[in-house]
## 1
Amino acid sequence: MAKLLETRSPHGVYGRPVLFNTLQFAWFFLAVFVISWLLVGRPTLRRLFLLAASYYFYGSWDWRFLGLLGLPTVIDLLVGYRMSIAPKHKRRGLLLLSVVSNLGILGFFKYYNFFIDSVVTTLHSVGLHADIPTLQIILPVGISFYTFQTMAYTIDVYRDRSEVCKDPLTFALYVSFFPQLVAGPIERAQNLIPQLARDPTAFSQSEAGKALFLIAIGLIKKVVIGDYLAINLVDRVFTSPSSYSALEVLAGVYGYATQIYCDFSGYTDIAIGCGILMGVRFNLNFNSPYKAHNLQEFWHRWHISLSTWLRDYLYIPLGGSRNGSFNTYKNLMITMLLGGLWHGAGWQFMFWGFLHGGLLGVTRAWQRWRGTEGAYVFPTTAWGLLKHAFFVLLTFHYVCLGWVFFRAESFGKAWAVLKQISTLTTYHPNLHGWVLLALVVGLVSHYTPDSLFEWARSKFAALPWYVQGLLLFVVAFVLREAASADAVPFIYFQF
């Protein structure tokens, strides 16, 4: 496949994509918002318009991606329909067709070169020479997200947990709906298809205010905190860790933990806000993950749509916690290793999954030994609160250890980061005031009570529309001043 010699991003080489954090998207969304509500009462025409808008949104990255979006749509639409009329003994074959075709497309575009490089390296290690060519493959943006979403549909139909969607237009929109197309949340058919199949009900000014508040918060997270830390700290540290002191490198690791949360949860906030304005409710995808007191709770709070997908469609089918402790730990490890591979074609992602799978197993074993499986009771005593804070801090640093391998371009770079931290040097000329402020604000705001956030959102929603407009203008001005010359793509677009 030939390269596109246009705008370069961390994910490959793309055209002029419509990014959430651009004025181009603001105009695009405004037009879609107005027209879609004008079409209420004409549901077929409305869905057709939203489908065209979604395909335009995705095609702005590269028009060739549209075929990859359309192919699983057609396959899984037909598979789902055939399942509804096929005898039970033939449904397994239809499900296999869906899974193999979806994973085959995903595997080729995302893992072909990784597989070839791994085979060549292995053969060289045993003294065999092989010259297997790799391909110039552009990774289609968001392919892992919509692949998992459409696979969930066919699996749920097979399990009789979801009704068959017989309307091609609605199903195509379910796969491609632009607010959550490229980075989730990964929505189940049971939630999203019924909402897309009917006209939305009118929402109140209060709901609109809450949606706009979410969008503004998401953009602030992304541009003011995430992008600023990436450009002025994280990218520099991870590119050449030996050029910085241990304190600066450690700050860079904390900075990446802050960046990836602000980047991804910021995207989710914008997606949920846009969905509300379009009359669609997405499920919660983040719930203050760095407040987790153990790794198990972290995965109940981080990227919830993926963690529940892995639980329902991988961990439980493997056997879950049935059939003894050994099988439980084995299933946890397989799930997290494949979860790591889902994030990227590299051994460092597999190791990241290994770190999480290992500690999840240890956590499960500890809970079984203590008899503390089940719902966590938040402590009320001073000693209990102190222990809770300690374990939150410990969990956060273990997650940060995993982030080192997640962010690094290779194992070598990851070890270089950890080695530099071990020098314990404290020279810090690069930790200037604005960098520290962004880091502190990003971390501290994460630990603010949820009630305070909900209070602020409700207060904003209750303001007159012109005051809301003035505040949003101020936010836009801040974003303009804080933004880099070129819009920085969201991290999870590459997955």
Note: The chain has two domains: 8-197, 205-293+376-490.
## 2
Amino acid sequence: MDKLRPKESSKGAEEIVLTQIKQDFITPANAIFDYVDMVEKALHQKDLIFNDEIDQIKSSCTKLINQYEEAFVENTGVNAESIKKSSEEYSELRHNLRTPLNAIIGYSEILIEDFEDSLEKGTIEDFEQIINLARETEKAIEIFVDYIRGESINANNDASSNQLESAEALFKSLGDIEYSIILDDDIKQSDILIVDDNKTNCEVLQRRLSMQGLSCRTSYDGNSAIAEVFKKTPDLILLDVILPDINGLELLKTFRKEHNSESLPVIMVSAFDDVDSISKCIQLGAQDYLPKPINGTILLAKVVAALERKFWREREKKLVDKLHIQATTDQLTGIYNRRVIFEALDEAMDNSKKSKDRDFSIIIFDIDFFKKVNDTYGHAGGDAVLISFAQLLQTEISSPNIVGRIGGEEFLAILYLSKDQAVEFCKKLIKKINKNVVNFDGIDIKITSSGGVAFSNETKTSADLTNKADERLYEAKKEGRNRFKLIDIELLGD
């Protein structure tokens, strides 16, 4: 049977195959610990005695992983080719690696038998999964031993051939990647704050990043870091966990009270490389984690990635804000458009039905003789009048009251005012409108407006309310314009 030995493939492809072989072992082996942890908690909840068996499974799994790691290093390292093993030695290696698996499977089966009637179905399935993972790990051991014997890649085995071909293709692709990182102008102009009590560490990080064109500041304790952020918010913080006054985790909490992770990304830096430390940093809002000693290439890659995410989010937010403005504002005047003002009216009417304290009034405005303005000064002159009128309304009608353009020369305002308050407001507003002069091409254009006012307690629906306001607007125009018509009141302009 023809064999494609590892040495017949490229070195890079062989390393990729070895990585995959190791991963195929480590993944199920580590998963055993996860399932053991889950069944241990389930047994505790049932007050069942099981400690010896669980300890045996854990210790066997630990022994298995340690033995595999040692065998992997010994048989795939730089001196592996010079170390020749006999068939008996490879058989012994296979036996030694499989022995802990027998314990894992055996003790799991014992626990299933002992507690089958006491455990829930899900826990029994977890035990069965431990056994399945152990057998999956056993297959990975066989593949590993075959590989280091030089028998893993079989020309007549489609799966093995595909594995080698895939490895070769991946290696070629990796070789084509440009490893130098090209920084765009946004990133080069970014401001990075390095926080570390060790001045040498600060200097090294600053030198590494400055060599790439990045601008950096340094702080040697928590209080000075807070002062630096207060003085000018940086684009990114590299934050050491251990500081002399405020520890890095507390400092991270402080930053997160004022800034979210998108506006102020933080990469934690620490010699602690355990899972708990890393997960704690991520939970508190760190965007990433760098273990010491810091690899320069990984440092730059993570810094650039964090900055790119920040600037991408900022550009995304600007786009969303722009789209929101386009969707909610009148393109010409810049005040709310018809859709927004009528949605607000529906909401106001719903709230008014729930409570009399939420009664309100509306005004529908119409610029008097607007067609004459367009005919005399053209559409540009008409647009200038509309813009000026809208600005006046927006100035006079402040939050929580709102105003919007509903079409042509018509505007609608929602006023959270009582009838008496609305009357006084309309008196002042019509005087403001009468005094307003629009200058267009050196010509002063004086305009007036008619309005119809309706109150929420007059009707049950927003449609009926706008109809009443429309009717009163029509009456105001019919009776001479430049006036506001209320229920039983007419307010005249100058």
Note: The chain has three domains: 6-176, 185-318, 338-492.
## 3
Amino acid sequence: MIPETKLNSQYGLFTDGAWRPSADGKTFDSFCPATGDKLASCSEATSQDVDAAVDAAWRAFATWKNTTVKERAALLNKIADIIDAHTDELALIETLDNGKPIRETKNIDVPLSAAHFRYFAGCILAEEGTATMLDNTTMSIILREPIGVVGQIVPWNFPFLMAAWKLAPVLASGCCTVLKPSKTTSLSVLYFADLIKDVLPPGVFNVITGAGSKAGQYMLDHKGFCKLAFTGSTEVGLSVAKAAAEKLIPATLELGGKSANIFFADCNLEQAYDGAQLGILFNQGQVCCAGSRIFVQEDIYDEFVAELAKRFNKVKIGLPWKEDTQLGATIYKAQLDKVLSYVELAKEEGATIACGGEQATDGALKNGIFMKPTLITNATNDMRVAREEIFGPVAVVIKFKTEEEVIKMANDSDYGLGGAVWTQDINRAFRVASSIETGRVWVNTYNQIPEGSPFGGYKQSGIGRETHKVILEHYTQMKNILINLSGQPSGFYPQK
């Protein structure tokens, strides 16, 4: 039996400040991956619904773009206060809908979401334009103006937090948005929209729900957006980039990864074991920057793998709303099947399974979708399991000898989103961190995602940076006003 929530049994589309059914009345159901229980029904958006949401956003933009930074900052802080006041219910809804442990949603996902709204409120209050005298008679003024209506699509692995990453800066910049959560995990965003429905003017924030192949594609095809913002797989990200290119509009893309988690022989082992688990078990490994390639220096390899396997086997797999659960449910069966297929592929490629490698079905887990923490050993960097994103609690452990060798292997990847270096040598830490071709490198920690620190990828891991004020540049356009103060004509043409 799942815990009771304050969810409605059915949700419409949130457009123009009100709840509305889809144009054709079609709905889909959302289920808890830990038990299979139905949570709520949601509306399946049609192309007409996307049209209506975009139209509402443009009507709202006519006035929203003229709000002052003080007005927008006050509203962002108010939204943060509302999130804080409803942390427990938002965390539980996210846990039930996604399957991640309540200790993660209550302590990370929801609080960080509130923090992002406050951060961007502060950013716009502190932001300054420029006025420069280029010479004695010419003044150059630089302003930032909101780009317009933005289409935003967020994934199923961090439904609420990714929505906050998108929504906070778009509102701060003075833009309006049509946001689509994943069909699999729409409920926390819908519940949130209901919490703030009276805070923002109608049409500033709109939520449509449905399948990526339907509602998502309707958004990509729509000509009413001035920008697209997407978080998800590299494969889908390519289609978003193409859609944006065809319309000559910008796109921000946060995509997949196969991040290197590098452990040198001089690392603090207790800290390192914790970091290896944090890198691949957080959110069941369903993290785009997961430390899924664990590189261990040969001096400590045997000891490290043996101890890490023991600790993986001790991880508490359980119903995600239980406070002592450390690893929750995989998002849906197709994803579990994909993860298990990679375990079999690892065996075929000549690797060994040090622990895990199978579904967890004991006791209360029997009706859910749970994967045991898995370590693939005796692996090489050219194996498919070391090159392709598995997106589950499965790490590949690879032995290395030298700093130069591990840098080369870390960079031998199509991706470049995250990564980490574990060492007590600060010079080595900086050398390696600066040499790895990736957007984020942690040193002696992993999966820390605070506001104010830019997050985004190199190579096929994406375009642009989020969680930092730089994203405001992506939601605004630069305007230059050039003023002639001389009071004199140019002299290029005859005068009377």
Note: The mean pLDDT is 97.
